[in-house]
Amino acid sequence: MSVDKGEVVVIIGPSGSGKSTLLRCINRLEEPTSGRIILDGVEITGNKVDINKIRQRIGMVFQQFNLFSHLTAIQNVTLAPIKIKKMDKNEAMETGMRLLEKVGLADKADYYPAQLSGGQQQRVAIARALAMNPEVMLFDEVTSALDPELVKEVLDVMKQLAKDGMTMIVVTHETGFAKEVGDRVIFMDDGIIVEEGKPEKIFSNPEHERTRRFLSMIL
Amino acid sequence: MVTLKLTVLSILFGLVIGSIAGLGKVSKNKLFFGISTTYVEIIRGTPLLVQILIVYFGLPAIGINLQPEPAGIIALSVCSGAYIAEIVRVGIESVPKGLMEAARSLGMSYLQSMRYVILPQAFRNVLPALCNEFIALLKDSSLLSVISIVELTRVGRQIVNTTFNAWTPFLGVALFYLMMTIPLSRLVSYSQRKLGTYEVT
Ligand SMILES: Nc1ncnc2c1ncn2[C@@H]1O[C@H](COP(=O)(O)OP(=O)(O)OP(=O)(O)O)[C@@H](O)[C@H]1O
Ligand SMILES: [Mg+2]
Predict the structure, then answer these.
(1) How many domains does chain B have?
(2) Is residue B200 part of a domain?
(3) In a domain, B42, yes or no
(4) Would you call A60 an interface residue with chain B, using a CB distance cutoff of 8 Å?
(5) Which residue of A has its CA nearest to B200?
(6) A194 C-alpha to ligand 1 centroid (Å)
(7) Predicted-assembly ipTM surpassing the 0.85 threshold
């Protein structure tokens, strides 16, 4: 599969179909057993690349937020820029505050994760990933652990991000989101890509029987 | 005061040794893991008194002569290091696995993730256990009297020997230990309550 700059690709598929695995292979949290991954013309699989450098260019947001619970929201966002990009503290704070503003949480900068709702925590996690100024963002079922009324605030942030031109690969069961901002939808089953295409086509007129069966279960 | 000094120094060295060995116990590197595990098993499987005697009386046999105090500090540090290693391991394992992945996904190396994300949370989670270890060590330092270090317990014995009164001096010694351990255990319960405030997940 390939993803163009600025494109929003949505991945759907039943549980265990390999959606998370695919995302985790892209930033090599999981080592692919075969195949190659090329980012901006440069192969990032293999032993020669500095994986830590590569990961700085690929943001990832997880289902379970995974915020650093001993740090405040703003510290979560600025930790990596300060420690590994050696960014100046004030500059990092400024960028961090701008990002928190972007996700609508400027007033919660000094709160600890435990003091924030799930939706707020997930938005901090998005800001944290953005702080490294990545070229592509990976989202793995980022709204699945949220109460229904909190899902929208996170999706709204993602929609805005898509509008701003971010390249995004999004695993989600939110068909509304897929239709609205997805440029392309990929359906996976049993570890392979079964079919892909424009959201309208996949959702209303899928070619494969497996896709149809899956959609009839979730729609 | 000697008791306190020896204990504080030993716990500090113990923390360094224990952190390294604790990292070893969660390491995927077989050699590092093996060495750390062996160290912890040997120390935990032998009495501290024997360890003290080995360091003080045994090492000279292979040409290492130590003054009582350095010998005492080495024995206590090496011993507490093993217990702290276990505490550190539990602490690291108490931090959800996803946090390591989150840190790595931001581009931090394994060591950076440990240092900035995992260890701070691990230490916070095991602070009460570490304080308990400190209390235990404080009391165990009384064993150093066998290598003629004039710490609290030995002072008590000396007074008993000159005054032929066993009751008051030893009672006094016990009181001195309590004066040190009670504030510490209060600190433990305080820190536990304090942790509770931003631990709610
Ligand atoms: N292409 C593949 N090659 C080898 N193993 C795979 C492949 N795809 C998936 N797997 C295996 O299948 C299992 C489930 O995959 P994964 O967790 O990625 O599913 P998922 O689609 O994210 O499911 P869920 O919706 O429950 O999160 C994993 O243990 C993974 O190792
Ligand atoms: Mg998954």
Answers:
(1) 1
(2) no
(3) yes
(4) yes
(5) A114
(6) 14
(7) yes
Mutate to test the pocket of ligand 1, among A21, A173, A193 (most ligand atoms within 8 A of CB): A21
What residue owns the CA closest to ligand 1's atom 13? A16
Say yes or no: CB of residue A16 within 6 Å of ligand 1: yes
For ligand 1, whether the C-beta of A21 sits within 6 Å is yes
* Adjacent-strand bridge partners of A167: A136
Q: With a CB-CB cutoff of 8 Å, which residues 146-185 of chain B face chain A?
A: none
Residue B166's pLDDT band (cuts 50, 70, 90) = confident
Distance, in Å, from the CA atom of A87 to the CA atom of A36, rounded to the nearest integer, reads 32
pLDDT tops 70 at residue B199? no
| Domain-located, residue B174 | yes
Is B201 inside a domain boundary?
Answer: no
CATH number at B88 reads 1.10.3720.10
Domain that holds residue B118: 2-195
